[in-house]
Design a protein that fits this description.
Blueprint lengths: L4 E4 L4 H10 L3 E7 L5 E6 L17 H4 L4 E7 L4 E3 L8 E6 L1 H14 L6 H8 L1 E6 L23 E5 L4 E5 L2 H6 L6 E3 L27 H6 L7 H4 L7 E7 L5 E8 L20 H20 L9 H5 L6 H10 L2
Parallel strand pairs: 2-6, 6-7, 7-8
Antiparallel strand pairs: 1-9, 1-10, 2-3, 4-5, 4-12, 8-9, 11-12
The site of one iron/sulfur cluster has 13 residues, from helix 7.
Length: 329
């Protein structure tokens, strides 16, 4: 579907921020923690928001699919089980970048594909997404190489240019947010190239290289720490554990983030380990993101946000790995 564009001369962000709060949403926005770090966190006032950032340290998944998410409460004395599922706070992600909106699109595909994840669905149903286009990138960004430069899901997408602000409305909620703004119909803005290193592959060859010996050599750089996957906005591996109270009378069943790179994650009942070698676990990550998710949902499971590279002590870049494997085709 063709995207319709509007524009406004004056910076609309503060008005949009106030309007979102008037509509009863709690706002989650980029907030500067210190010189080096911006995080997504709750903001009550517009002047808490920092728009000078490339990628926040955390990502939208922390709010939609949080670590330590309570699945149920159990009281041993009354034998009562309570579900937290009636909880439905309205949350607005304000000024996230296109790659993080696309991470939500990937999460939607994986977690709303029947049978839906009810915990994710409840939060997602009450989520507003306002995307602010990127003005700069760094050496870790590679959205343009994984078809993720343009957001696939949003209520509003705002693209600043030198003379005005372009706005695309993605939903009825988006129209409601800006119903008081003096916007006018306009042409499409130029979506600026971010000047990051471009990778161009024939991805279809990757599937056939699963058993290529180059994977062993590449996996030797990886210490299997899991930092890459715990920082990734599209990873959804989890474990379920019970947190029992000290007096043993109550229990909270929680979902905790896990990682397919860990040996224990691939252990089945009875103790069988599915992916025993570090090499198998290392390469599974790449096949899941670049082959299996793409085949099933038509998009890559990686948005090119660069968080994994920024956290990796071995500086492992997903597309450098793919590139090396394809060179051996
Ligand atoms: S694999 Fe890395 S670059 Fe891709 S979405 Fe995950 S953290 Fe971002
Ligand atoms: S952060 Fe780097 S070293 Fe750690 S598991 Fe990921 S790729 Fe391996």
């Amino acid at each position: 579907m063709e995207t319709s564009w509007y524009s406004i001369d004056k910076n609309p962000l503060e008005t949009i921020f106030r309007r979102i709060r008037e509509l009863g949403y709690r706002v989650i926005a980029p907030i500067r923690l210190n010189e080096d770090h911006v995080v997504l966190d709750f903001a009550n006032k517009f002047d808490e928001v920092s728009l000078d950032f490339i990628r926040p340290r955390n990502n939208p998944k922390s709010f939609l699919f949080p670590n330590e998410d309570t699945l149920l409460y159990f009281d041993y004395r009354s034998q009562n089980i309570k579900s937290p599922l009636n909880h439905s706070e309205k949350l607005a992600l304000f000024c996230i970048h296109p790659c993080d909106a696309n991470a939500i699109y990937v999460l939607d595909k994986m977690l709303l594909d029947p049978p839906e994840d009810p915990y994710y669905m409840l939060r997602r149903r009450n989520l507003m997404i306002v995307v602010l286009d990127c003005e700069k990138a760094d050496d870790y960004c590679f959205c343009e190489s994984v078809e993720s430069r343009v957001p696939r899901v949003y209520d509003l997408w705002i693209v600043p240019s030198s003379s005005k602000y372009f706005i695309s409305i993605g939903s009825r909620l988006g129209s409601l947010i800006i119903d008081h703004l003096p916007i006018k119909k306009d042409r499409s803005p130029e979506i600026r190239e971010l000047n990051v290193k471009k990778y161009s592959f024939d991805w279809s060859h990757l599937r056939d290289l699963y058993d290529n010996e180059v994977w062993r050599e590449l996996s030797e750089q990886c210490v299997l720490c899991g930092s890459c996957l715990s920082s990734c906005p599209t990873c959804v591996c989890f474990d379920v554990v019970d947190r029992v109270s000290h007096d043993l009378n109550a229990c909270r069943r929680v979902r905790v983030w896990d990682s397919c790179i860990f040996r224990t994650f691939t252990m089945l009942a009875g103790g069988r380990i599915v992916r025993k070698s570090p090499e198998e676990r290392f390469k599974f990550r790449f096949y899941h993101k670049f082959v299996f998710i793409k085949e099933r949902y038509g998009v890559f499971g990686c948005t090119g946000c660069g968080r994994c590279i920024s956290r990796c002590s071995s500086h492992i870049h997903p597309l450098e790995v793919v590139s090396e494997v394809l060179r051996n085709a």
